Amino acid sequence: MFQSSLALLVRASLIVVMVIALASCAVSRGRGESAADFTGEMAHGGLTRTYFVHVPPDYDPSHPMPLVIALHGGRGNGGQAARYSGLSHQSDESGFLVAYPDGFGGHWNDGRTFDESSSKREEVDDSGFLIGLIDHLAESYTVDRSHVYITGASNGAFMANRLACEHADRIAAIAPVIGSMAAELAEKCHPSQPMPVLMINGTEDRLVPFDGREVKFGFQRLGHMLPVPELVKFWVRHNHCSPQPEKTRLPDLDREDGTRVEVERYTSCREGAAVTLYVIEGGGHTWPQGMQYLPEFVIGRTSKDLDANRVIWEFFRQYRR
Question: Which has the closest alpha carbon to 223: 71, 304, 294, 117?
Fold first, then answer.
């Protein structure tokens, strides 16, 4: 009885901490620090979908600009994705548009069959929405359609993999962070073209376990996944890469963060579509060099040895569709 009550108390405490922390890191869209953040909405599948776009200072409507779509994690929104990743700063530095769409009910229908999220219960067509968003944004901004990329964290990373499965002809590359692919989706994932993939995963991620087969938050079971090494093999096989990676250990730039970074690069791939995995040894369910959006005891450590935004963009800019 005591153990059961204690378990319920711990679970309730985790949820309260999560809600408070997420609320505190939300972006007030349209009233943010940058005058170049614009909100918008579009109709899709009988729903009104919302998003906001960050436009860098060197945007010139007469010149097409690359587009990165950044997908938030579960129970989140686009404003939170912008805040914890800091991707808009990379946009300003490197010159690309970045869109932060909102999932239905705070979630993406990423291919997992669990019934926890409203997006899954309602069978929301998030794939159609996100691909439609590319066309929608191209009506307001001068988008270089050959340079459209998808990144995302957690639930957003799962959704990035789903888009790569279903719309490889519209996306130049993906960069899922602290996520994987739904096990059910992997069985029927047959991308029409090679897909360049960069992955970032922590070995101490308790929510999306590096070698695990189930997504968990506290006592909640949130669906089945491919272990990270299996997902890497999936993309290596699909892209016909060399099965033996080139491994590099990055410098330990911050000796206080408790992490180290090893890079696995799979090359000699069809159409040059490389697969790269950044293994954050000791890293948790966090965006490297991003915000520690929840306490370490809940989500683990944030690595300061890797600038995730920089390596993602350097990977993306090599590819066009």
Answer: 117
